[in-house]
Amino acid sequence: MRNNNWFLQDDDGEFGEALHRRTEELYSVHDTLVADDGLVDCPVLPLRDLVIFPRMVSPVFLGRDASIKAIEAAQTKDQTVIALFQFDPDEEDPDQGSFYPIGVEIAVGRLLSMPDGSSSALVQGRRRIEVVEFTQEQPYMRVRARRIQEPEKVDREVDATMRTALELFQNCVELNRSLPDDAYLYALNIEQPGWLADMIVTAIAPPIEERQKLLIMVNPLERLKKVINLLAQEVDVLELEDEIHSRAQGEVDRTQREYYLREQMKVIQTELGEGEPWLRDLDELRNRVESAGLPDEVRDRAFKEIDRLSQMSPMSPEVTILRTYVDWIIELPWAQSTEDNLDVKNAGIVLDQNHFGLSRIKERILEYIAVRSLKPKRDKQPILCFVGPPGTGKTSMGKSIADALGRKFVRLSLGGVRDEAEVRGHRRTYIGALPGRILQTMRRAGTVNPLFMLDEIDKLGQDFRGDPASALLEVLDPEQNFAFSDHYLELPYDLSKVMFITTANTPGPIPPALLDRMEIIEFPGYVEEEKVEIARRFLISRQKEENGLDPEEVRFQDRAIQRMIREYTYEAGVRNLERELGRICRKIARLKAEKKRYPSQVTAASLERFLGPPQFFNLEAEQQDEIGVATAVAWTECGGEIMPVEVLLMEGKGNLQITGQIGNVMQESAQAALSYLKSRSRQLNVAQDTFDNVDVHIHIPEGAIPKDGPSAGITIATALISAFTSRPVHKDVGMTGEITLRGRILPVGGVREKVLAAHRAGIKTLLLPAKNHKDLVEVSKRAKASLRIIPVEHMDQVVELALDSTPPKKMRPRRLPSSKRRSSGKVEPTIGAAS
Question: How does strand 484-485 pair with strand 492-493?
């Protein structure tokens, strides 16, 4: 048997009359007679998912044969049955231990057959009973039970509790639309607390577990207090539900009010001859499309979308999506362009005004302008990639090129972009979809031929959302970008007239396919002379203006700028140099604002007053000839530097140790240099067994700085030869070059920076690979004049030029005393000195 409790009420019509007739039948059922011991013996009606309270009427549905037989046996004698409630509602065949000890004596009306084969009956609870014993189990259960008499006396506490329950029940009836108003009147006429509690529980129908707990509570006052708690919870839920319903109804009323007002506005505007606003907007869109000068395919698509808009209600949510799409079509530049300034001389003047040096880059731009002046209809634009360290002027050079050409300059930073949709946009099926950042930037430019800078292209990432670098392949390919396809626009857009310039700090992370589409132009780090000139021409005047100083008020000596570059900055560009200049200008501006005395000239000696102690220290050439120490010149992003190589020989077993945070390539160069030395040991007068009895330790100072590359090969070989032959290396000789196992010297990079580093460090003679002699054209005449640059092709030339010409003494192992020979078995070698 399963069903929810009903609260029985009067109904109208035939159903109501039939219900009343069935209820009258319940009152005609006689109570079971009480035996001499005060117990009643009745059939058992097991119930599950249903709790019937005394005096309450409810239908039950019967599906088990035992239940039907129990009711038929009771009706034969026109007596009541006892309803017992199962612990587990899923149990099909309950036994004596399956029921709560408290049940209800009920009267059962006539059985009615249902269409599904089950039976139903209307029942009424009479009173609570307590099971004493089971007297029969088959074919149906019978029990002997004791009727529970509830006290009817009403004291002050009971009266107050009943009033509280009635007040809460009244609120519940007012808020709950499913409860009739008569329910409260019915409860108001109940004078017994237990009856009132049972009636309210039947009306509000709490969960089955709560009803079962209330049924087995015999004390009426405790039961009523429990009902008050349930009523309070129910009222809270009903109040929240009523609030939500009121808000929803208010929103509906507001929407309907707006609709009626809009309809009235339409009628008024029609009467005034002004037309409908929605139709005016559509006409305005058509006029904008006509006057935008769109290509045929784009114009047809725009009109098609406007026609779709005209068939929609202005309140439709899709209207905003279509309207935004049409606005994007209209606002993108399809034919608007700026006229290029193809005056080569003017372009050269503009580039020189804004940048010092960078001759290769300027030449490439002037070549492009010259070609355009000879062939103005040239469609393909160059796609350049500026590669260089931070602060070397890549982005500012792009702005200068745009000024020289008379084009608009737009910039898009690609650093950290990981989503392909950032480039190509989202499809219109997504909520809030927009075109990609390429078309967004083109709309901001307003022309079809801007100078478009894609900054930090080497910082692109990729993840599960796609690879934006692959999406850029179409953008940066002159054979494809004339019909660039954006996922949002879904129309071909011409990017062939755009001059794309990308920037990167290093080309390594750029995918090869993308790198192949670009022309690489390297931005080398500025050397000291260039930094001094840039500071004099641009940085000092800018910092004076930004910090409120007059142009002629403070002067910076060249030696002060040089010291600032060497001892207060360490960079390839000039950003930190400008910061240090700004610090000095701010301190002078403060002195001026405080009416204090301030210097009119910044000298090298006064730098510590403004900037504090030096932050960096450059290595200088050795003060004397040393054994096992040779000077290399190295390239870094921040320019060139000298790098001493130290070799130390110790007793050992022929091991080679290299320290100084050396990379794999430099380690291999050291091994190649040692192998070359071993192969030339006879010519260099070094005993062959010496290599088996000594350990070689090669160290490159400044161990915190990573070092790598093959250009220190001949320097390591020179230091090794010096250590093994005890011939000192000339202190004023620097060198660079890669060594092979046969002693040949191969060319290296960074010659310009290395020559200038040797010049600054006081080197007098520089040994350079012969094949690098061509790179000296990039070196200033002043640096070349102060150095004796000797091209070398073989290691023999290096040994002759770098080592002391004193004939080498043959290095033989010195024999140990016999006691030491027996104890150690080693020979003590002559150890080459190292500073």
Answer: antiparallel
Please tell me the predicted confidence (pLDDT) of residue 696. Answer: 93
Distance CA 352, CA 346 (A): 10
DSSP strand E in 628-705: where? 629-636, 639-651, 656-659, 694-699
Catalytic, out of 400, 669, 711, 726 = 711
* Residue 788, strand partner residues: 765
Beta bridge partners of 792: 769
Residue 678 among the catalytic residues: no
How many residues belong to the chain?
835
pLDDT exceeds cutoff 90 at 698: yes
Tell me the C-alpha distance between 277 and 679, whole Å.
95
Helices 795-802 & 713-725, crossing angle to 10 degrees?
60
**Interval 410-434: pLDDT, tens:** 999 888 788 888 888 888 888 888 8
Continuous H helices in 273-358: 277-291, 296-310, 318-331, 344-354
Residues 404 and 361 sit within 8 Å (Cβ to Cβ)? no
Distance of CA 192 to the CA centre of its chain: 68
Euclidean distance between CA atoms 736 and 768, whole angstroms: 6
681, amino acid identity = S
**Residue among 754, 819, 820, 824 flagged as catalytic:** 754
Q: Is 711 a catalytic residue?
A: yes
The whole-number pLDDT of residue 9 equals: 42
Nearest Cα residue to 731 out of 621, 656, 826: 621
Is residue 20 scored above 60 in pLDDT? no
CB 393 within 8 Å of CB 512: no
* pTM of the predicted model as reported, rounded to 2 decimal places: 0.56
The distance of Cα 320 from the centroid of its chain, to the nearest Å, equals 29
What pLDDT shows up at residue 728? 92
